[in-house]
Amino acid sequence: MSRVINFSPGPSTLPLPVLERAQRELLDFDGSGISMLEHSHRGAKYSAVHEEAKSLLKELVPVPDTHEILFMQGGATGQFALVPMNFLPAGKSADYINTGSWSKKAFAEAEIVGEPRWAGTGQVDGKFIRVPKQSDLELDSGAAYVHLTSNNTIAGTQFHTFPDTGSVPIVADMSSDFLWRPIDVSRFGLIYAGAQKNLGPAGITVVIARKDLLEAASTKVPKIFRYSFIAENNSLQNTAPTFTIYMVRNVLQWVKENGGASAMETRNQKKANMLYGCIDEHEGFYRCPVERESRSVMNVVFTLPSEELEKKFMADAAAEGMVNTKGHRSVGGIRISMYNAMGPQEIEKLTGFMKSFAQKNG
Known about the structure:
This protein is 37% helix and 17% strand. The protein is of the alpha/beta class. It has a 7-stranded mixed beta sheet with strand order 2-12-11-10-7-3-4, with helices on both faces. A two-stranded parallel ribbon has the order 1-14. Helix 8 (260-281) packs parallel to helix 10 (344-361). The longest helix has 22 residues, at 260-281.
């Protein structure tokens, strides 16, 4: 079997050593005679994996003692609803920063629960080509929280610095760029990240929440939707997706073995510099619509002179063993997703193809 280079935005490519390890351990995990797929979520074998995953997150991100680590289900979409259910009390508002589709979906869920307001937008002439700067924001000092999406997989925009919100906690959807670099977790009230980009397969959402916010959260929602209840039960209030968390543990071990979050940042910046450099070198043929200061390191979007050429680009790339290069259906064009598991050598192959394609078709 020959593996292709997978530029899918999610579920996305996983580190090959992680997949090979899962293959080796699939039938017999740690000498137990059964698969991790078969182990009880309350058994000793799984418990060790669960705790190691939390320990690795605490070390790699890093996560201070002021914050709790939760494993949840329902993806970012579930968090769109759970954040206001827990943190948006009657009579208060929450600020949302609009950077595209995911921000809008989060806002729509908050509208069902309470009274959110838009505090700023990255939209210019109907298109999301930037993230708003601090000066663009109109923040409410009395807001329950400020919600933002750190990276937009569709538009290819990303916050490289986070806004100053004063004493108002930031709630950040980091599903598509969590662990791409070290972050100061103390600046955030809550971070949530679907695993299927940088952390593992689909099926689990990592949540990092400030303990004092959990203690003050609403108790007028069913227990299964309360962050505090999930924290009290160590994310084992119901049968956990054990195999997915096992895979997340393995990915985190791979990150640690490869130098941690700082090394991931160096790796990711190298890839971004190569790809954006190629686009800018051939700017008459390839065009990235995103303002330079807001360009995503995880999801690079660009267009070609015609839709016909874009279709040819995708077909020719697939023939060269590079798949899932199509842009999101709402914006078209080309999208290259290159999360932590994507190596610089794969981007080097892509840019070589892009240069040749431009020469032949420009």
